[in-house]
Amino acid sequence: MQGRSCGLCGQTRFAEARLVAAPKTRRHVSGRNSRCITRAAASGPKLMWEALREAVDEEMEKDPTVCVMGEDVGHYGGSYKVTYDLYKKYGDLRLLDTPICENGFMGMGIGAAMTGLRPIVEGMNMGFLLLAYNQISNNAGMLHYTSGGQFKVPIVVRGPGGVGRQLGAEHSQRLESYFQSIPGVQLVACSTVANAKALLKSAIRSDNPIIFFEHVLLYNVKGETNDNYYQDLERAEVVRQGKDVTILCYSRMRYVVLQAVQELEKQGIDPEVIDLISLKPFDMHTISASVKKTRRVIIVEECMKTGGIGASLSAQINEALFDDLDHQVVRLSSQDVPTAYAYELEAATIVQPEQVVEAAQKIVQKQMAYA
Amino acid sequence: MLYKQKLARGFLHLADGQEAVPVGLEAASSYKDSLIQTYRDHCTAVGRGVTVKEVFAELLGRVDGAVRGLGGSMHLYKAENNFYGGMGIVGTHVPLGAGLAFAHKYRKDGCVSFTLYGDGAANQGQISEAINMSALWNLPVVFVVENNHFGMGTSQDRASKSARFYTRGDYIPGLWVDGMDVLAVKNGIAFARQHALEHGPIIVEMDTYRYHGHSISDPGSSYRTRDEIQGVRRARDPIEHVRTLLTEFKMASSSELKQLERKLKKGVQDDIEAAKQSAEPPIEDLWNNIYRDGLGAQFRNIDSTRNKIQLPQGSAGR
Question: Where does the record place the Transketolase-like pyrimidine-binding domain (chain A) (predicted)?
Fold first, then answer.
């Protein structure tokens, strides 16, 4: 399967077979004597990890209370290069290489945030943050409330999640479904180079605890960024306007949906594609406006069917917009299984563009769509 | 008594018997130093400037409480005096304490973080994580183990292989202090504070005792004898110790002290009455302080058919 430039969003379309996670390109980058770093600072198309790095660099430069902590964020350069060489500019205290103790260093970041610092705590993989769940739920999420507003926790918890390339079950988790119930945190998922940089900048500036979801397979997506642009953390992006069906997606599923859209257009179906961006709270205004127009909804998510983001969203749409729907909300989610290692099995676990095409065809033709 | 009248409810962890620890600690530090501990925080909160009335109002769930009735007994805070609580889950605040020390080091402000935990908490893995990180980066933190010898109903020897908690830091130094003697606590903390600033983290174990059970639902006598409790009270009560010192060294007469006690008791009674008069928090407070800037977090009606979305004007049918 070749990579092509997407006619709609202009970005290099996600090439199924050839996209690799960032670490495999490490040798290639470091062999270039930091030419890559200079290139990242200039304008022009850049990779998502470079855009995220710019966001961190710009905010750390502007505000001395912003700091980073996590495993291998400093001298190693970040396992996905998001903090590459920043320790040379800001020092070891502001780019803190932590030992492997997620519970401990998440708590440390939260304690520092309570005093007014703005730490960015990186989970090398979001799945590892299950070890820090207590800290994120009780201390990051709830402290602002249980202290009667005395303490704020302006922390950004970020890292890659999602299903990668045969990484195995424990490295392919979707933590957004576990974190979504925690009161007091915001969940944000970036998807393009532009929104990755803009959202991360906003997340760092926000006084709320933000859990910022990146995706293991998107770090090498190429695109443009907007200079000095902060994107609203609670607003969804309308990726494509349409009138036949509203397709709600986020993170890597945006590209899966856009691939399906190319096929749907050939069949004369006109979908409206909305990238949720904000997984908690949902941007019900943008979503409602779209649903009132199309009267049909498909949710495409990488979470599992049980208890995923789609489950909450489907319930909210059904309750709030029942009279505006001509068809039940269709939910395309991953299978309720640990992600298998074998290529075909892994591909069968998650939603593929063909399934989105089939669901859209059926919903537009007013038949039941199985999900 | 408030509990028996069902005015205070939920969990209630009393710290009588352990008063010397917060009093001695405050005498050797300032409000610029941070302090964080778990739920047995009534005395410590008063030591950090939360008024007695605020503590009682919080227990009664009233709006004049330390946290406006939102936190309860276990969650007393005072941000301007660097009192970080008041936490519910055992041991979870110890990495936070390391974070407070990290912030002190980051800002280079010459202050320390006092992180208090109990003998029951000492077996939490995250405490080892916090000790490792603090020692690795020389964070100015004093880990204070308030050893009252019982983790709820389990005595220290049934829970810990090594009950010498001041040695459990392994590669960081430790100090054992008689936690019922307020002057010993003061001197121990003064030493530890200086050590933390100059050399890095240190553990201070306070040998103390609680007269009541773990919490109000625990009579406290199923795992220890009444004789033991009375014995400690007779021999080592921290307040009696101070009274003895004052009268022996002729700094105050016993009748002066009795007058002081009467005055304080009346003051506490007045505070309780004032707390009872305080209003309940308004229902809107349910939704305040979830997010920092509101974000419109609203009361989602339990009856979901009343959950209609109001679009802003002009946004429909794009």
Answer: 46-221
